[in-house]
Amino acid sequence: MGHRLPVAGGVDVAHDRPDGPGELASAAMPVTAKFVPDSIRLVPGTPTSVSLRLHNNEEEPQAVHLAVSGELADLVTLEVDDAAIAPNQIFDVPVKIEVGPTVAAGERRSTVDITSECGSGIATLEVDVVAHSEHTVELRPVRSRGASAGRHAVRVVNMGNVPVTIELDPDPLDAEITLDVEPTFVVTAGATAQVALRAVPATTYWNGPAQEHAFVVRATSSDGTENELAGTYEQRPRIPRWLGPAAAGAAAALLIGTIAWFALLAPWVEDTAQDAIDADRVALQERIDELEAAAAEAEELPLGVPTDLRLSVAPAGGNSESDSQTIGRGERLSVTDVVFQNPTGAVGTVSLLRDDEVLLQSELANFRDFDLHLVAPYVFDESTDIVLEVDCRTPGPGATECPVGASILGFVDEID
After folding, report:
1. In 9-70, which ranges are E strands?
2. Which CATH architecture has domain 2-129?
3. Is the pTM of this model over 0.85?
4. Fold of the CATH domain 303-416
5. Tens digits of per-residue pLDDT, 236-261?
6. Could you tell me if residue 398 is left (phi over 0), alpha (psi between -120 and 50 degrees) or otherwise beta?
């Protein structure tokens, strides 16, 4: 049965209580330990070094084992894990601490457990992580298309270690559209968040050329930074341009069926001279060939309006990061081409997902610039997410991150 008592040098030493009359407590651990200095301020992204000072107070050599513990254990590196300390010797163990840019600001505590054959103890370092604010704000996509509304999102990536509050002031620039967006939202440290923005036209129309409406969104952050995001909503007619050719193709198919029925299958067609019948059949076949060609041309219409988007991440070594975009309401995205980019030669895994479903996955080491042309497109329905996820195992030479991008090409079709 044991308990801990504090000793000099910042170490807690375990003692054994006597279990019966005449039994004495064992002697205190002969090695004391403390950090030098015992408190520091850490700037995110800046390595800091301290020393763990071990002192053997006895006349016999002592062997100790060191193990990092506490809330900063993953960020603390000891130069050695085991040490043999001569009698009355002071031994300094170099300690390196580096906190990432997203480690929350405030007071922390780093500890090292010291064990030996004679007992165990803990050395404690008080750490104050300095507040660090860094984030990006962007409008995605910059251009939208639709008959009844344009769908965008304001996306914020918080790369700092304190929350950031974003206030949005949308300006439609004219009275032809209104902008609907949440005016304020908060992004926690190290997180990515986005709010939907809809550009709604004052009036809609059935046919005619597309009309462009420019707008801006002014984003003011809690740290005082300001961003002006410019966008364009391309208003399209309610009757899509492909409806005419599609209707012509359907009519052609119906006409082919009607002609074939009356010309070839109806048993009551009046019999005429053989020469006239042969001539009619030749003319009929030529007409059928023309209509089938028109129907085939109609079937080759594109899947919608050509579009492109880019997703990119840059996780630090040993970390994972993802980037995503949500398909707007009333829209369907058909992806026909995907181009992955790994310019620094990082090692890890890249995945393309539809919500939580993995569609493509590859090792980063397998490519630098790798393209996929899909015979059958990947289809993303409204409100689904297209996600790029990267697990960075080893950054490229001279780099600390794995910058990976995906250029995605396809077609957007309205389904409302």
Report:
1. 11-16, 31-36, 39-42, 48-56, 62-70
2. Sandwich (2.60)
3. no
4. Jelly Rolls (2.60.120)
5. 887 765 555 555 566 666 666 666 65
6. left
